[in-house]
Amino acid sequence: MLPPELQIPDPKNYPQATEIQGEPVADSLPEQSVSPRKLYLREYFKNKSFLFFWVAIFCLSFVVFVVQFFETRKQAEADFVFEKSFFIDSYKYFKDRIWYAIDVGAAELNWDIIIFWFLGAAILLCVYIVVFLFRRRKLVSWGKATLFFVTNLLFYISFFCVFLPATILVVVESLVQSQYAKVQSYEKLLITDFEKINDTKIVSEMVRANSAPVEVFDDTSFLFQEKKDKLSFVEAYAIPFAFSGLNQRLDEVYNQEHLPYIYFPNKGMLVIDQKKFITDLGYLFAEKYLTSLFIDEQRVRVKNYQVLDGKEYKPFYVQAEISRLANYVTENKEIYNANIEVIKNRTSILNGIPARLAYEDEQYKLYVLDKQDEYRKRCSGNSLLNGCQGLLRAIERDKQIIMDNKSSIESERQEAIENIENGKKFNKEIEVYNADNRKTIADLQKGKIDDSIAESQSENAAGNFFTPSTMIIRYFGDELPMSTKDYLEIINHEILHYYADAPDQEDVLPTFINEGLTEYFSTLSFGYTGEKFYSTLSYPLEVRVVELLLKKMTIEDMRKVYFNQDTVLLRALFQEHFEGVSYEEFELLGTDITKESWLSDQYIEDYDSAPLLVKMKALLFPEETGIIEEN
Predict the structure, then answer these.
(1) Mean pLDDT across the stretch 91-100?
(2) Which of 7, 291, 528, 571 could be cross-linked to 532 through a Cys-Cys bond (beta carbons 3.0 to 4.6 Å apart)?
(3) What is the pTM of this model?
């Protein structure tokens, strides 16, 4: 039986209502003191509205992470950020797979969106909890309210901490799994199809058939170093895995088959023997970078392309210079002999002029003087005999013909005298020029090079192009370790020289313009921009001069100047765009810049602040220099 205070009163025991002044009045109920029942913590979590809020949080978070999954996958396939640890052998696929995946996969997430959603949802959760607890403040103690708040917040944070790595792992795992077929195809090619990866002709056809430049990677130790802008995420992750398991196989294949390089379809070339690669395929690979930009200026491949060691380079360079100068001597000798023939011919003309003038005098006597006597006899006085007017006109006509003939003879005499004088003058110059060339040839044969720039090139240059079609590349080997891509840039530079060569043209562009434009166009063909553009330059000062010119000139005009070696057009464009600036002073300063580039032993830390370049800026843009000085 319930206690009296909890029993429901019997309605018949209630006092009856009585009417007072027409209004019902009830007797007063007895007062009862009932304290509010305290709620347990588990009852807070059973609240339907709160559960609905959590379901909404989970659903929206799931949507956010699904979107992040596809965004991350898309971004990862387009770009990838590498760490040096990526190349360490201990970073194998099976050993540290989970932590590796988290490490590289987390770098691809859009953390701005993740953090924004995390903080936004956390703030909404906190606000909702506060409102929820405030409305139940009489039923909730401070301790339980705090515990409830912290529990929900920790649960929310734990949800993110578990869901986020899981999303990253799923992204990376899906990418890797999708690459197994490609990895297996590489293994099959490497192990079974030796002919396809070692036959230069087959590889050449593969490269030619590829519309874009084929990537080149040096040995397995540094397979993808500095290639992050060229590799997709899946290639960066799957291919090293394949190679890490195939290092032993690579050694076996190389030892058995002596493979200098391995071609992976749709990926690129793995270079094992660098010198062999740039000898066999370097020209072809380098030319691919020029195809898209300079297809109209392309020429057939050079006839003589060689890759030489440092000890071989200088003798070849010297011999090429000897051959070049010997050709000049031969050509000049032919011109010398041709001039002698011209002098003989013009001397013969001079010797025949007195006889030609005497003949014209006889013609004058016969057709002018004799006919004038006939006219005086027949047509004297007022006689108007038939034929007199015609005879008079014939006399005047013949007189003019003979005068024109004598004038022509005089012009031929002056021209012959001028030709003889110029021929003798040019032949004297040829004698001096050929004597200098013969002396230079003799010095070169003795191993002596007087020209300081030529000496620097023979000792230090990485490549040279010799008219009409000889190209040599210096292979530095262990003397100066260089990537295969660096050698391709050198070959590319020399190919552009070949495209712009004008062997039959007397005037060529100044060296600083020629080298500056060659390096500028070559670097552009590789797609380098920003800091990468300037870090790859072999002629940093010359390229900066070109960039100064391009502030006012157009790239199309500079292309015409370069590929036609058009000094006249260059001067005209310079005078048009840099009005009031001396072209001669510009050329002299540019020549000094070339000497600075080749001959100075002083290391330049900041090329933009180099003294000669500052002078060039002041020459070309005095107004800007003035503003800088005033400020």
Answers:
(1) 45
(2) 528
(3) 0.60
**CA–CA separation, 443 vs 453, rounded Å?**
16
d(CA 533, CA 59): 47
- For residue range 108-117, list pLDDT tens digits in order: 566 777 788 7
For the cut 50, the answer to whether the pLDDT of residue 26 exceeds it is no
C-alpha–C-alpha distance, residues 114 and 80, integer Å: 19
> What angle (nearest 5°) sits at the alpha carbon of residue 481, between those of residues 478 and 486?
140
**Could you tell me the CA-to-CA distances from 273 to 219, 245, 252, 475 in Å, in that order?**
9, 21, 15, 12
**What string of DSSP letters covers 154-189?**
HHHHHHHHHHHHHHHHHHHHHHHHTTHHHHHHHHHH
Whole-angstrom distance, CA of residue 457 vs CA of residue 454: 5
Per-residue tokens: 226: 């500095």
527: helix, strand or coil: coil
Residues in the chain: 631
b (16+ CB within 10 A) / e for 315-333 = ebbbebbbebbeeebeebe
**Cβ-defined contacts of 177-184 (< 8 Å, 24+):** 178/234, 179/234, 179/235, 179/237, 179/238, 180/238, 182/234, 182/238, 183/238, 183/239, 183/241, 183/242
Cα-Cα-Cα-Cα torsion 355, 356, 361, 364, nearest 10 degrees, comes to: 150
479, 509 contact by CB (below 8 A): no
Write out the two tokens for 18: 């009585």
Beta bridge partners of residue 473, listed in sequence order: 307, 463
Strands 215-218 and 268-271: parallel
